[in-house]
């Protein structure tokens, strides 16, 4: 059996599940591009802790970690079960890697998790274990976090990093207030950053990826803070050594908010 791929997705706002878009269509089609997973381990940019935390909640609830959206989004329930046994396996692998993990006995699904999973696997019949990111730590830490879990791929377990390839919300909200105009200057900066990331990922240049803050262009314009890019490093690390990287999706909102997704085989 071939090891399960790992994936990085740009998850957007919660309205990705209700509003038509190329990104929504891509997420809905993920099951056609991947083997059916026995379980899913997901690292969302919205689950932040000091050091790694593994959720062993057998029945996670919902977290509506957003404001100002339509009422129907606050009524969505994604009832996928947790998997305490798998959580224990994840915890053990992280512990063996010297990462000193903790457990969370209760934690619901934030929108970085449930939006992606609801679109891709709407039946909610695949167990899910959540792993936190640490916004105070760097790319190398998150790559190592994923790498510690790489053995799970051989067991049919899908590792997902859910963040965003660009995440300048100030620019996004400004575009929304002004009637969604195109911003050529911002679009050019996104082109430069996303193009650099695509080259580094496709060429397997892990050294460059780990030094993205120093080497990539227009970093502050695309990621004022790091947390939404760290799931990409998690997914790349979880793919093991020398994976083949597939640029599975690329679309834009407002001409500059990028929704790139990568599958690591």
Automatic annotation (TrEMBL):
Keywords: Metal-binding, Oxidoreductase, Zinc. Coiled coil: none annotated. Residues 36-249 form the Extradiol ring-cleavage dioxygenase class III enzyme subunit B domain. GO terms for molecular function: ferrous iron binding; oxidoreductase activity, acting on single donors with incorporation of molecular oxygen, incorporation of two atoms of oxygen; zinc ion binding. Its cofactor is Zn(2+). Pfam families: LigB (PF02900). Belongs to the DODA-type extradiol aromatic ring-opening dioxygenase family. This is Extradiol ring-cleavage dioxygenase class III enzyme subunit B domain-containing protein. It comes from Effrenium voratum.
